[in-house]
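sanity check this fold:
=====
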Amino acid sequence: MSSSSEKKSGFRSFPRNFWTVIIMEFFERGSYYGVMSVLSVYLVLNTGDGGLGFSKESVGVIKSTITPLLYLLPILAGAIADRFGYRRTLMMAFIVMSAGYFFTSLSTSYTLVFMSLILMAIGAGFFKPVISGTIARVTDESNSGLGFGIFYWSINLGAFIFPLILVPYLKGIGWNYIFIMAAVGTGSMLLLNIFVYKEPPRPESTKPLKEVLKGILLVLKDYRFVLMIVIYSGFWILYFQMFDTILWYLKDYMDMTPVNKAVNSFLGLFVENPNWQFDAEHVTVINAGAIILLQLVISSIVKNAPPLSTMITGIALGTIGMGILAISTYAWVFVTGLIIFSIGEMTAHPKFISYIGLIAPPDKKALYLGYSFLYGVIGSGIGGILGATLYVKFVDGMGRPGLLWFIFSMIGVATIIGLLLYNRYLKPRQ
């Protein structure tokens, strides 16, 4: 009896389909974060240095278009996948995504790059709900917690390994090879989909697209819920700077020699004459690495804490992390700011999901949780254009990066004040 229950709650309780989609998730997210870790740098870099020489404002428009698509599309994609089958949807997603990355590797004009990245975002948007949907269908109450834990771990592992190992190597050959890597990483998953992945059992009833759209309207009519999402998205305006303004700041202002020396002295214990150098892609590595190392610790510390106060603590830490960048251009100050921001993110976000569950009407909790991701649509939609505009004005124009980080810190402070006022005056009675 004991061995049976152990098996049911352990790794062996998961069927082959589960591990298949975990591998797909690892390669898809690794490809995505590998590209995103350097995309904003590549797009603005001088053509003589191998970049495309676009203006920062134009790159902000690209980022404020493709990232919201990634958050919005899964609503419709989930309903379409339920109707037409998960394998077919995955087939389309991998083909479109891989083509988007590949065309980006070939494109040099702004229009073609923009269109190629939109293609990538469409593929990724259709991919996302199929993976979480498969995990939901092949797990039960006894192992779904562990299953989704492995799922989130695989996302961060991909975001850690690809930028750490593959991106620096490929960048040395040519920037376009980073996009070719992503095209191969996602395109090769077609083989898993064709030969290994099996269509999971369908639920007895699936929502038609009309029902999904009705659900959106129902949720958007609830001004309390919408206001909560709008307030919380302030924090995600800060988060999305990790992929834009922070990377530009690193390239323009930071001398990472102290970090390079420390890392190379450590690597010297294992290899002769190491020449590791901190670059743009390592910002993503720090964020993902901190989550891999600390998420379980942070979650256990705050597991019994009230959701709202924990969210505020996390956002305060994120705000402090962003503000630290304004203090100094010393390398370790920069790294410390990124780590503190990452701790804030992993403190706030799980509790946000918990808080949405508390404020949602009892009979509509699943519906509200399904649309809680709208914070990403707003945060990335504003963050790309706002970050680029402020960077050009205060950093490129005035040479005052400290003022840029101060403004973003104030957005964090405004988010905290908004949450406190919301909890005081608008939170539905339990």
